[in-house]
Amino acid sequence: MSRSYRYRVVDVFTEHALEGNPLAVFPDASAIDDDTMQRIARELNLSETTFVQPATRPDCDGRVRIFTPRFEMAFAGHPTVGTSFVLLDEGIVPRDSKRFTLEEKVGPVPIRVDADAQQNNPMIWLRTPPIHSGPAFDRAACARLVGLDPTDALDVTPQVFSAGNPNVFIPVRDKAAVDRSAVPDLRALAELKGGFSEPLCVFVFTPTREGAYSRMFAPEHGVFEDPATGSATGPLAAFMMQNGLISSAAGTRFVSEQGTKMGRRSLLHVEIAGESGAGGIDVGGHVTPVIEATLRI
Fold first, then answer.
1. Is the dihedral of CA 167, 168, 169, 172 positive or negative?
2. Which of 33, 137, 199, 222 makes an SS bond possible with 69, Cβ 3.0 to 4.6 Å?
3. Which fold does the domain 4-127+286-296 belong to in CATH?
4. ∠180-186-188 over CA atoms, to 5°?
């Protein structure tokens, strides 16, 4: 006997339909088991699909399970922001909420909604989980990994930073170099990683007057290119501050533009609290609903 499950698709980090990063959200997934969640995510084949369940922690307002087509993630940014929009839009959390907390595998993730929450499309912010740095890699090897000449690289050492999903950040000299970059070959990526065992995303960017212009490749996640990567944007800010590519002053705000090359322009807003982000790094954006559907299995 088949069952029906209602879901929404929203475009995240954009105010325009068919831009940003699409996300499927199942707002009532209490009856869906883990294996079926993974199979659904594989069927829909988006960067991520989320499933909302009752929170298991008293300090959280809902539990969010996040799946790529290949596996479950501990934390991801555009699924967190997009799911928050759906929870507000459907009244699962009160529509006038300014703050609430989502339970994810990484732990509680605080959500902030800008004061104009009565608008149809408020800015929704997440507080980035603790950021950790990892190994550094050879600059020329990283350039070649994404199909660039070593002369395209900035004189900054690429390094892994993570807020739950490790990214190697590769700074290059201009937008044209970012646009020329290509999906890394899995064998070449494995050789670069050496003994680093976790799945690694490859984040190519150049500093801009607004903040950054970027692309992100995640072939080990089953996502060749991601239009908007909120989980990488807090770590991007940390990497840029460490290397003097943006101000580390409290209150600094900037925008990372991502997905433009693939025709899904996304704007990810960043707010740095405290000197060098000591008070936290918030990542925010708008969400645009595009689909309401029913899955029968």
1. negative
2. 222
3. Diaminopimelate Epimerase; Chain A, domain 1 (3.10.310)
4. 75
pLDDT tens string 110-153: 999 996 645 668 899 999 999 999 999 999 999 999 999 999 99
Per annotation, catalytic residue among 19, 43, 48, 275: 48
Which distant-in-sequence residues (6+ apart) come within 8 Å of 120 by Cβ?
Answer: none
Query: What 8-state DSSP symbol labels residue 158?
Result: -
Catalytic annotation on 48?
Answer: yes
**pLDDT tens, position by position, 212-235:** 999 999 999 888 999 999 999 999
| 132-281 CATH | 3.10.310.10
Strand intervals (E) in the chain:
4-12, 21-26, 49-53, 62-67, 72-73, 99-104, 107-113, 124-127, 132-136, 159-162, 167-171, 201-207, 211-218, 223-226, 253-258, 266-273, 280-285, 287-296
On average, the pLDDT of the chain sits at 95
**CA atoms 224, 124, 179, 75: torsion sign:** negative
State the span(s) of the chain assigned CATH 3.10.310.10.
4-127+286-296, 132-281
Greatest CA span in the chain, whole angstroms?
Answer: 60
- Using CA atoms, how far apart are residues 247 and 225, in angstroms rounded to an integer? 28
To the nearest 10 degrees (0 to 180), the angle between helices 77-89 and 230-242 is 130
CA distances in angstroms from 216 to 267, 277, 281, listed in the order given: 14, 23, 20
The answer to whether residue 83 scores a pLDDT higher than 50 is: yes
Task: Let me know the angle formed at the C-alpha of 20 by 16 and 21, rounded to the nearest 5 degrees.
Answer: 140
Nearest to 134 by CA among 97, 163, 103, 154: 163
Q: Which helix (H) or strand (E) holds 188?
A: helix 186-193
Q: What is the mean pLDDT of residues 259-269?
A: 98
